[in-house]
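Need Stage III sporulation protein AF's 3D structure for a figure. Predict it.
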Amino acid sequence: MNVLIGYIQKIFALFLLLVVARQLIPNGRLKKYIYFFTELVLIIGVMQPFFSFWGDNDALLDKIRSETFTENLSEASRDISRMEYLRNDYYRREYENAAALDVKGTAEGYLEQFGFMVKQSSVELTENYEVRKIILTVAEKEARDTEGIFVEQGKAQGSQIVLDELKQKLVQYYGVKEDRIQISYGGEG
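Structure prediction for Stage III sporulation protein AF:
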């Protein structure tokens, strides 16, 4: 008997709440939809005891908890993947900086005899840590008259010959294709 009285009290409270909600709604185009919605809520409230015969409330709550747990687990997995990607991206940048220093040292060792220096060097790596591109900017150490091949072919042609030879040395040393090496002449340092 107490269950029936509790049920009737809940239905009456729901009915009063929906009537008050209907009165607060201004007249407008959406009024008929809101009336439909409140009637639907009232019908579901009245039919609720019959729905409990078809399904166990505890089983439904367990399914909801399980789904929430699964969703949280997949979200944590995505977060771990993002952290791993960021960590790998950080390591790749560190390797790029170290490779750029190594390329700079190799290039300066070759260019020093011709009076050049490396102004800037950078290396781009792929996700698999393979060299995607080597970029160098080369300049003269000091303004001076050049000797050897520069006298015969002119300063610009001599610079280009030295840069082409440097590119070949880098191709041999790092095993990178020639089209992945970009060397530019930046003038005097």
